[in-house]
Amino acid sequence: MPRLVSKKLQASDARHFVGDTMFDRCARATCAAGVNMPKKELLENWTLASMIHDRAAPPARVVDVASGHGLLGWFLLALCAASRRPNVFAVDRRMPDSAAALRDSFGEAFPALPARHRYVVADAADVDARGGDTLVLALHACGGLSDLVIDAAVGGGASLCLVPCCHSLKTAKMAPERLAAARRAVDGGAGLDEALDGQRVAYLEERGMVVDATKLPEDITPKNTVLFAAPGVAAPRSRTTAVPIFGAAPRALPRPPSAWRSLT
Ligand SMILES: C[S@@+](CC[C@H](N)C(=O)[O-])C[C@H]1O[C@@H](n2cnc3c(N)ncnc32)[C@H](O)[C@@H]1O
Question: One Gene Ontology cellular component annotation (predicted)?
Fold first, then answer.
């Protein structure tokens, strides 16, 4: 009988992260929180936080919408620890116990960080991202939640980092002509994810955003499209035709512990 290995992160997994890199320190803090999360979430949150960190100087404010346990914001704060920016607002309509456990654990590992972090219980539709120098982000925003997140960024003149999830023509909150265009693309053989995300890209560009679509490595998560967008000087254009949306190649993963390789 094969040995059963838990796919959930255990406190004892801290033994895999004994180094002094920022990834090791953050992984230990995550393990110490005793959060019952799938191991792959450690890798996907770290990879996305690293991508965001490597792209640009930290903004004044990050609003992590649909943040769940909020790990992404803690990773981003840790990566930006040498800077006085950003302040992170984790927003979710429900704050799970795991969010408090992560706050305690990251506060112990990085005492300066909790002062820069707030958890706000609110609906994504009520996010007001106006005020300048703000990044709205969401990892695995299910269905039409992705469209609420896009509208929060567009309405606030903020930058965006979005990993859409649970693609569905039924739940997407798009204009009817965009839904119709996505449906046509699917009928023409396109994948549902790319058809809907293609319309999201077109909508963002129409609103004057400059979009850069990339991917998280597929071995971390199959729902791996990452839409980066920022208010730009490009002339807004209107289109609903499907276009290829991907530019840059995916980044490499931080090496997971060898015992995990078959689990991610
Ligand atoms: C799939 S989870 C993603 C959590 C986290 N970003 C992650 O990747 O681990 C989706 C989250 O969206 C939250 N959510 C769903 N609808 C929401 C809404 N309208 N406003 C705010 N949060 C919402 C849920 O409570 C849940 O925590």
Answer: cytoplasm
**124 close to ligand 1 (CB < 6 Angstrom):** yes
Q: Residue 142 C-alpha to ligand 1 middle, in angstroms? A: 7
The predicted model scores a pTM of 0.89
Q: How many CB atoms lie within 10 A of CB 96?
A: 16
Domains of the chain: 40-231 (3.40.50.150)
**Rounded CA separation 171/173 (Å):** 6
Fill in the amino acid letter for 255: R
Q: Is the CB of 37 under 6 A from ligand 1?
A: no
Per-residue pLDDT of the chain (264 residues; tens, 9 = 90+): 334 456 899 999 999 999 999 999 999 999 999 998 999 999 999 999 999 999 999 999 999 999 999 999 999 999 999 999 999 999 999 999 999 999 999 999 999 999 999 999 999 999 999 999 999 999 999 999 999 999 999 999 999 999 999 999 999 999 999 999 999 999 999 999 999 999 999 999 999 999 999 999 888 888 999 999 999 965 555 666 555 555 444 444 455 555 454 433
CA of 164 relative to ligand 1 center, distance in Å: 11
Q: Is 221 in the pocket of ligand 1 (CB under 6 A)?
A: no
DSSP assignment of 76-118: HHHHTTTSS--EEEEEESS--HHHHHHHHHHHHHSTTSGGGEE
* Rounded distance from Cα 80 to ligand 1 centre (Å): 24
* 162 C-alpha to ligand 1 centroid (Å): 13
Beta carbon of 68 within 6 Å of any ligand 1 atom: yes
